[in-house]
Automatic annotation (TrEMBL), chain A:
Bilayer-crossing regions: 78-96
Source taxonomy: Bacteria, Pseudomonadati, Bacteroidota, Cytophagia, Cytophagales
InterPro entries: TPR-like_helical_dom_sf (IPR011990)
Keyword terms, alphabetized: Membrane, Transmembrane, Transmembrane helix
Protein name according to UniProt: Uncharacterized protein
Automatic annotation (TrEMBL), chain B:
Naturally occurring in which organism (per UniProt): Larkinella knui
Entry keywords, A to Z: DNA-binding, Sigma factor, Transcription, Transcription regulation
Family matches, as InterPro entries: RNA_pol_sigma-70-like (IPR039425), RNA_pol_sigma-70_dom (IPR014284), RNA_pol_sigma_r2 (IPR013325), RNA_pol_sigma_r3/r4-like (IPR013324), WH-like_DNA-bd_sf (IPR036388)
Gene3D superfamilies: 1.10.1740.10, Winged helix-like DNA-binding domain superfamily/Winged helix DNA-binding domain (1.10.10.10)
An MF annotation (GO) of this entry: sigma factor activity
Superkingdom of the source species: Bacteria
UniProt KW Ribosomal protein keyword: no
Protein name (Swiss-Prot/TrEMBL): Sigma-70 family RNA polymerase sigma factor
UniProt family annotation: Belongs to the sigma-70 factor family. ECF subfamily.
GO process terms (BP): DNA-templated transcription initiation
Length: 241, 193
């Protein structure tokens, strides 16, 4: 057994007790053995240092490689997930808003569908009303407006004339005038069905002045609360406001 | 995709380190990766450069691996806590080093443990001899050994047993690996003289 093997066995704990004691004794007197022990320990330290440096270099490579795909800490993942949800939520809301018409657009659609053409029964027995309705349906709104104004001049509180005059004003873009007609109609409390408040609300939505949306909302709530004509449409409109 | 990658439990990593061989190497890397967020924590908390923190973190992981292999880590605290404490101490050492210009705070390997095996009278003789030696020169000489010898000496330095070295470097038995290792040491000794 050469010196290095003996030393290796000693430091690995493989030497029997007697040989171990003999080794320790000779170490004090045998300078060659002491020198070999010093070399052995130094070589092991050098190997450890070198191995450690290699391992550190390997870790450094790992760090650089994983830097671009570093797993996120849990808190960052939660934050990112929250951001994604927010973006999806806002995106979804925006998409929903794009897909569903606004209150003004709904009002437009409603006016277009319901009042672009009037039923002749509205005119009933009055020749003047019948004439006005015919003109209205023919698209001659100015003439129809003149007929209804003349009728209102004679019968200022005629509910049918107020409604028709208001509709002519609404469709010709004279919203202020339309609001006056519908407001007067809405004030009448003795009618079986009174669309005055609902039509005023529609007109205010169309006019779009600063307080109009709020006032339209108040009117629509009254229509819903009192179960007045236009309640179903009012409920749909109020969800948009 | 590492974003969704699950980290292995500490118990599996410890078992893998103790198993040795290729499994040990894989577990070393995975242990390093599992807690590498500490580099950013150290950078932020101690206001150190990222590279310095990365170096301290590597030293931490290597120290923890040594402790696990030597049985010094007894599992009285969570491994994460253990790593954090060592890392924190290394960061503080780094700050001291920077403020006092004191070098060698990362001198992680010490001869003390080996020397303690020797009786007092013999220890002082060996210590004197070591003091006259040049460990850096010896390190550079390891690089001049052949590849197989170099790998073997480094594996020995990492604490692999002769059985593990035989498996890793394709020797028939641990005994053959040991004989080859001692021959490599002899060659290194000749180069050193």
């Amino acid at each position: 057994m050469n010196d290095l093997e003996l030393i290796d066995d000693y430091f690995s704990g493989r030497l029997p007790v007697e040989e171990r004691a003999r080794f320790e004794t000779s170490l004090q007197t045998n300078s060659q053995l002491a020198d070999a022990v010093a070399f052995y320990l130094l070589a092991r330290q050098a190997a450890q240092n070198e191995a450690r440096a290699n391992q550190k270099a390997r870790f450094e490579t790992l760090r650089k490689k994983s830097a671009s795909v570093r797993p996120m800490p849990v808190r960052s993942r939660i934050a990112l997930a929250a951001c994604l949800l927010l973006v999806l939520g806002l995106g979804g809301y925006w998409f929903f808003q794009q897909q569903t018409p606004s209150a003004t657009e709904l009002a437009d659609q409603y006016i277009q569908q319901k009042y672009s053409r009037l039923t002749t029964t509205m005119a009933e027995k009055s020749d003047s009303l019948q004439l006005g309705v015919n003109l209205y349906n023919d698209g001659k709104l100015t003439e129809a407006g003149a007929v209804f104004s003349d009728l209102l001049h004679r019968q200022p509180n005629d509910d049918r004339a107020l409604k028709l005059a208001g509709l002519v004003s609404l469709r010709t873009g004279r919203y202020d005038q339309a609001i006056i007609f519908f407001h007067r109609l809405g004030e009448q409390t003795d009618l079986f069905a009174n669309p005055g408040l609902f039509l005023e609300a529609l007109t205010r939505l169309k006019r779009g002045q600063p307080t109009d949306n709020h006032q339209a909302e108040v009117l629509l709530k009254i229509v819903i609360g009192h179960n007045l004509e236009g309640k179903a449409e009012a409920e749909e409109l109020i969800r948009k406001l | 995709m590492r974003f969704f990658a699950r980290q292995p439990p500490d118990s599996d990593l410890i078992a893998g380190l103790l198993a040795g061989g290729i499994q040990r190497r894989q577990c070393e890397d995975r242990l390093y990766q599992k807690y590498d967020y500490l580099i950013a924590t150290g950078t932020r908390k101690h206001r150190l450069q990222e590279d310095d923190c990365a170096s301290a973190y590597s030293d931490t992981i290597l120290t923890v691996i040594e402790h696990i292999l030597a049985g010094h880590f007894e599992g009285r605290s969570e491994l994460a806590t253990y790593i954090y404490q060592i890392f924190n101490n290394k960061c503080i050492d780094l700050i001291r080093k920077k403020s006092t210009q004191r070098d060698q705070v990362h001198q992680a390997v010490s001869l003390d443990d080996s020397l303690l095996q020797l009786p007092d009278s013999a220890r002082s003789i060996v210590q004197q001899l070591i003091a006259q030696s040049d460990v850096d020169r010896l390190r550079s000489l390891i690089g001049k050994l052949g590849e197989k010898c170099r790998d073997m000496i480094l594996a020995w330095g990492e604490g692999y047993s002769d059985e593990e070295i035989a498996r890793q470097l394709n020797y028939n038995t641990a005994s053959v690996a040991k004989t080859s290792r001692l021959r490599c040491l002899e060659r290194l000794k000749e180069l050193y003289r």
